[in-house]
Amino acid sequence: MADVLASPPKTSPSEPGPRHADPAGTVHEGEGPVRRDFLKLAAGSFAAVGVGVLAWPFIHSMNPSADVLALSSTDVELAPIAEGQAITVMWRGKPVFVRHRTAKEIQEARSVNVGELRDPAPDSARVKPGKDQWLIVIGVCTHLGCVPLGQKPTDPRGDYDGWFCPCHGSHYDTAGRVRRGPAPLNLALPTYAFTSDTRVRIG
Ligand code: FES
Question: Which of 30, 172, 186, 192 is the most buried (most CB within 10 A)?
Answer without folding.
Answer: 172
